[in-house]
Specification:
By secondary structure, this protein is an alpha+beta fold. Helix content is about 55%, strand content about 15%. The strands form 3 sheets. The chain has a 3-stranded antiparallel β-sheet with strand order 6-5-7. A two-stranded antiparallel sheet has the order 1-2.
Length: about 210
């Protein structure tokens, strides 16, 4: 890959990024911010990890998440039901925020990555690849699945004295989803993705001339 100019995210220093080898990273010489990191076959790894994360997310939504019993009354909840089960409308905004950061945004993020990865594997870029790539970069910081699961576990530890609580298969699937999503973050590099997009676009323009 040729040298390309990039501005540092922290200090706006403009610099050239040389071609990198496997596991090499480029840092800003002024502030030390990691500009990009290169992995061999990163696009394939990104596609596979995002697809696996999507599958685990789907399983986590279809299996019981928590089973609790109060005074002999047993109730089973899925992950979404655990968010929707709100007795006081004061917490409606919190519930909506949890649903977006723990499910909707990660789902959209993974679907966008799969679309982009598939687009890069085609001879011609799929429609709206440019816009979807921009959307993916915007969605990445809002993925907070790990914060959601920690808050859920802490809250249920607090109510354990009042009810008998058991966790279902959905918890394991959701934890696997978080691990797969973390792997997706490792291979997601906006500089590498944009460089690949520009390279593909350039080849398409040459082919049509």
């Amino acid at each position: 890959m040729k040298k390309r100019k990039i501005a540092c995210h922290d200090c706006d220093l403009l610099m050239l990024i040389p071609p990198l080898k496997h596991r090499q990273k480029a840092q800003c010489p002024r502030c030390g911010y990691v500009l990009t990191r290169f992995y061999q076959h990163s696009q394939l790894k990104l596609f596979v990890s995002s697809l696996v994360a999507l599958i685990f997310l789907g399983f986590s939504l279809n299996f019981p998440f928590i089973i609790f019993s109060i005074h002999g009354n047993e109730k089973t909840l899925t992950l979404l039901q655990s968010i929707q089960n709100i007795e006081n409308l004061t917490y409606l905004l919190i519930s909506a925020l949890l649903a977006f950061t723990a499910f909707i945004i990660p789902l959209c993020f993974l679907l966008c990555i799969i679309y982009i990865s598939w687009s890069f594997r085609k001879k011609r870029l799929l429609p709206l690849t440019n816009l979807i790539l921009k959307l993916t970069v915007l969605l990445k910081p809002w993925n907070m699945a790990e914060i959601f699961i920690i808050s859920i576990l802490v809250s249920f530890i607090k109510v354990q004295t009042m009810a008998s609580i058991e966790f279902g298969y959905a918890l394991a699937f959701y934890l696997f989803f978080i691990m797969s999503l973390s792997a997706t973050f490792i291979y997601f590099d906006k500089y590498q993705l944009w460089s690949l997009y520009q390279l593909k676009s350039k080849h398409e323009r040459r082919a049509t001339e």
